[in-house]
Specification:
Elements (H helix, E strand, L loop, with lengths): L14 E2 L5 E2 L1 H12 L4 E2 L19 E7 L2 H6 L4 E7 L2 E7 L2 E9 L5 E3 L12 E8 L9 E2 L2 E2 L14 E4 L4 E3 L3 E9 L12 H4 L2
Antiparallel strand pairs: 1-2, 3-4, 4-7, 5-6, 7-14, 8-13, 9-10, 9-12, 9-14, 10-11
């Protein structure tokens, strides 16, 4: 669950009531959080190396959260493969959805943080992950960029597309200063996040 104190009005609401109800940056981040972060929360532990030079007296400037990825998000990211199944002597083609985890990483540091992906479980079948990098010109800005593209509603009032970038699983994860990154990583045989295939009533209706 992700909650905010107000939708409209007061101090830094999700929608800017003084600017034609334009979404503020937190609106987009909240929306992607709801799409990618499932209900099941996973335990995360991590450690910094001596070369990380993290500020402060602990690791609170870097925060990492992990959830099981919802079915719809796994499917929309394209992490599926097709196979054939016999039903009433008719051959049907439908996707098999792997389990996956979604990570959100918050970097409160003034420097880039690099994460070694070798400590993150991955899939042998799916060699890539999806990344969403939220950045801004400064921490007080009401402009937010997703993968270096500014997010804003269209001329017709529709929300913009949330386009991810695909990275190989063995590529280091670079988190820019004062930014938020979402990752979707497919994983085989992760029982805690096992996804059921699309319900039969949807496959064969």
């Amino acid at each position: 669950v992700m909650g905010r104190q107000t939708l409209i009005g007061f101090n830094y609401s999700l929608l800017d009531d003084e600017n034609n109800y334009e979404p503020n940056p937190d609106y987009y981040i909240t929306l992607l959080y709801k799409r990618l972060m499932g209900e099941r929360v996973l335990n995360v532990s991590w450690s910094a190396t001596p070369n990380d030079n993290l500020g402060g007296d602990d690791k609170r400037n870097i925060r990492v959260y992990a959830h099981c990825t919802p079915f719809a998000a796994i499917e929309s990211e394209g992490f599926s493969r097709s196979f054939y199944s016999m039903r009433n002597a008719v051959q049907w083609n439908f996707p098999v959805i792997p389990s996956a985890i979604s990570l959100v990483i918050l970097n409160f540091e003034d420097s880039i943080v690099t994460i070694d992906p070798s400590y993150i479980p991955t899939s042998k079948r799916w060699s890539h992950r999806s990344e969403y990098h939220f950045t801004a010109p400064d921490i007080f800005s009401r402009i937010v960029l997703l993968n270096e593209i500014m997010l804003k509603v269209t001329d017709t009032g529709a929300l913009p597309e949330f386009l991810s970038v695909s990275k190989n699983n063995d590529t280091p994860i670079k988190v820019m200063p004062r930014s938020i990154v979402f990752l979707v990583i497919p994983i085989e045989d992760l029982s805690v996040c096992e996804q059921v295939t699309r319900p039969e009533k949807d496959l064969f209706r």
